[in-house]
Amino acid sequence: MSKEEKKQIIKAVVLLQQDPRYPGLKSKKIKGQENLMECRVNKDIRIIWQYREDVIVLLAVGRHKIVEL
Questions:
Q1: Nearest 10 degrees: CA dihedral of 37, 67, 6, 9?
Q2: Domains of the chain as residue ranges with CATH
Q3: What number of other Cβ atoms are within 10 A of residue 35's Cβ?
Q4: CA–CA dist 31, 22 (Å, integer)
């Protein structure tokens, strides 16, 4: 990943921590997966995460294809 993409990921993680429903993240449940969520970093990069009690746990960060796994 490029240096710019890494900066975008950090920004998205901070926003996710502050407000998982922040409109720019476009957080949503992953179809067919119980308790897994995804949010956008940019057009191509996604973060897969889930709630565990009162904590957001990051499970994966990568190109959009990671959501299809």
A1: -20
A2: 3-68 (3.30.2310.20)
A3: 10
A4: 20
One pLDDT digit (tens) per residue for the chain, 69 residues: 899 999 999 999 999 999 999 999 999 999 888 899 999 999 999 999 999 988 999 999 998 776 665
d(CA 63, CA 44): 5
Q: Distance (Å, rounded) from C-alpha 43 to C-alpha 18?
A: 21
Supply the pTM of this predicted model.
Answer: 0.87
26: left (phi over 0), alpha (psi -120 to 50) or beta: left
